[in-house]
Amino acid sequence: MPEIRKASAAQEGALRRFYADAFPERAAFLAEHWEWLYRVGRFPGIEPLVLVDGERVVGHAGAIPVVLSHDGLQHTAIWFVDFSILPAYQAKGHGQALTMAWMALCPRRITFCNDLSMRLFLKIGWTERADASVRSLPLELSGPLARRYGPLAAAAGPALGFGARALVKALTLGAPKIETKPLPLDAGGLAERLDDASAPTRVVRDADWVRWRLLENPRREEHVLAEAGGVSAVFRLFDSLGRKRAHLLHVGPGPAPARAAMVKAFARWALDQGADDLWMAGNDEALLSAAAPILRRSRPLRYAWHGADTALLSVPLPTQGIDSDHDLMFP
Ligand SMILES: CC(C)(COP(=O)(O)OP(=O)(O)OC[C@H]1O[C@@H](n2cnc3c(N)ncnc32)[C@H](O)[C@@H]1OP(=O)(O)O)[C@@H](O)C(=O)NCCC(=O)NCCS
User: Fold this and answer.
1) What are the pLDDT digits (tens) for 78-135?
2) What is the pLDDT of residues 244-299, one digit of tens each?
């Protein structure tokens, strides 16, 4: 009978093999960096759980701890991420058992998840909220056309891509001039630009968070800090599965028009960098509305929460692409 253990109690080779089976595209990154990703050791007692059969890892429930602030008080919560049971072990109750054990790690639980896991979570008392989405725009179209309609359709890619780029250029004509630079190493200074301390409920983006999510990120070099109109933002440019991706990860606090203008500035920057795909995520209405005419594809995100602390958990939590593992899911 498989048993549940902390990930650090699994054999390293067994964890590596599980990542290769369950998350093949991200396996190399996870095997090397899982302790960074899940902030192991930073929040005592909180780390991913694994389902082990003999010494073989056959299931995994990842946890990313985060500090939430509500009405001036701070509380630890955990994001449920990288939840998977190997096919031979599915539909036997292991997913539910692992979820219950995972929930015992921390009394405040939040997640973005898919239909399969949402079905399980709703059965054990989680509450769903639908206020977040992903917005994106492909500028290189040969690849997507070939995948969807076959190799012949790829021939239309260059012309359609040219049209898409011309449209982004036109839509971003009035974008503010931004300065981009590598992330500064001053975690406290960066936190001040990114954390909106005036929000009644928020993810606390203090120096500790900045150090983990940005400065100690194994792929830190792919990030830049952008500034315009008194607003700071974090963009990321990287190669993933053969495509050059530009992600708008986070827009810090500031006047609403300057925050919305940052979305335009991001799109223009991504175009100038030769990006194949533009992407952002979250539930910030001002940012999503500004993005709608440019990043025309929209996909809803399923969010759910669980815990007795309903005053904190039942109110909308402002999120952006930098939260949970949205951006980190891209290999
Ligand atoms: C989502 C996932 C982790 C669920 O794991 P699981 O071990 O299959 O979950 P459970 O066995 O607890 O529940 C799944 C189903 O099996 C049923 N079940 C539980 N014990 C059972 C048993 N002994 N016999 C038959 N069915 C059983 C459950 O009632 C449930 O049925 P339902 O979907 O009709 O409600 C798994 O499907 C998975 O790894 N999927 C691929 C990765 C993925 O999508 N992860 C979520 C990312 S957000």
Assistant:
1) 999 999 999 999 999 999 999 999 999 999 999 999 999 999 999 999 999 999 999 9
2) 999 999 999 999 999 999 999 999 999 999 999 999 999 999 999 999 999 999 99
Three-state DSSP class for residue 286: helix
Q: Whose CA is nearest to atom 40 of ligand 1?
A: 84
Note the CATH number of domain 133-300.
Answer: 3.40.630
Give the model's confidence band at 3: pLDDT under 50 very low, under 70 low, under 90 confident, else very high. very high
pTM: 0.95
Alpha-carbon distance of 296 to 44, in angstroms, equals 42
Joined tokens for residue 82: 């990288």
Mutate to test the pocket of ligand 1, among 85, 89, 113 (most ligand atoms within 8 A of CB): 85
Residue nearest to atom 14 of ligand 1 (CA): 91
Q: What's the CA angle centered on 245, arms 145 and 160, to 5 degrees?
A: 35
Does the domain made of 3-106 have the CATH classification 3.40.630.30?
yes
**Cα–Cα distance between 138 and 96 in angstroms, integer?**
37
Find the 84 Cα to ligand 1 centroid distance in Å.
9
Ligand 1: which of 4, 60, 92, 98 to mutate, judged by most atoms within 8 Å of the beta carbon? 92
CATH topology agreement for domains 3-106 and 133-300 = yes
Domain boundaries, the chain: 3-106, 133-300
